[in-house]
Amino acid sequence: VIQHIMRERKIGILCLQETHLNEEHKTQIDTLFSRRMRMINSKDPTRPGTSAGVAFVINRELTNADNAETFELIPGRAMALKIKWHNNDNLTILNIYAPNNTSQHPEFWGKINEKWQEKNLPPPDFMLGDFNLTEDPLDRAPAKLDNENAISALRELRNRLNLQDTWRETHPSERLFTFYSNTNSHSRLDRIYVSPRHDQNICDWDSCTSAIPTDHRMVSVRFTPTTTPFIGRGRWSWPIGLINDPNLIKRMSDLGKITQRKILEQTEHRDEDSDPQKVWEDFKIQLRQEARKTAKEHLNKIRQRTKKLEDDL
């Protein structure tokens, strides 16, 4: 499922929390998927298969995963990743799974700061994950202020690392929730903090239901450094899922018969209105048009079904 999500959404680095991975599960994942992705996991030292756990999943198709370096700050709770990102630029990401008990937060955030200084890590570009805490009453419904000591400790760490809640800065009055509890309360527990130096390099903020079984929504943002080379849309290719569509196959066959008849009716004299190559080119254009039309019809059906499933959830 993770591999499919990363490929479909073109995710370069996926940060996971509450992974509950032990060594056996990690080995199985590496054996099956190491060619396409690299997973680096930090497990809970006492209950690796049932508690906590954070992980980075690096898409080998988009990113040079082999040069990635990780730093375990708090096992199963906080881990940093340093990776080359386009040429010689370094990218540092801090992955967080904060305790559920907010009374533990002051010590938790203080320890992360202490370990960060110990390891002499550079200021992070991103800090993200499940914070089990909101800084603004607007991020809860019903609105309420969380533990003030926990909020102060988190903000102190953010200030030291020079990170900001860029989504909230951009949407000061908007409400967006990533966690829906059984008590009908909603909250934005999952956030991405960004270094201010990247304000102009991030776009396409999104929060969506994940195919991974979880009670949290997946939050994402696109990072486009100024040094990133421009990559065009690429060459159009026939969608594999349409190969066996019976209605499309029939239309292709009908267009092919018409094209064949037109070519056979051509005389030796050629002009702009009578040229087999022109007839053949028109045929290919019509095929593309029919394929795109059918693909849109299929996509609309998928979107309607996805929306229905989201509404049911």
What would you say about this model in short?
By secondary structure, the chain is α+β, with helices and mostly antiparallel strands.
Terminal Cα separation, in Å?
Answer: 19 Å
Order of strands, widest sheet: 4-5-6-7-11
Helix-strand pattern: HEHEEEEEHEEHHEEEEEHH
Radius of gyration: 25 Å
The profile of the biggest β sheet is: 5 strands, mixed
Q: Provide a count of the helices.
A: 7
Low-confidence stretches: none
Shape descriptor reads elongated
Structural class determined from secondary elements: alpha+beta
* Count of distinct strands: 13
**Beta-strand content:** 15-25%
Instruction: Please give the oligomerization state of what you see.
Output: single chain
Question: How helical, in percent, are the residues?
Answer: 25-40%
- What is the mean predicted local confidence, pLDDT? 90
Describe the structure.
- With 313 residues, this protein is α+β, with helices and mostly antiparallel strands.
- It is built from seven helices and 13 strands.
- Strands 4-5-6-7-11 form a five-stranded mixed β-sheet, covered by helices on one side.
- Strand 9 and strand 10 (186-187) form a beta hairpin.
- Helix 3 packs parallel to helix 4 and helix 6 (246-264) packs antiparallel against helix 7.
- The longest helix has 37 residues, at 276-312.
- The radius of gyration is 25 Å and the shape is elongated.
- The chain starts with a helix and ends with a helix.
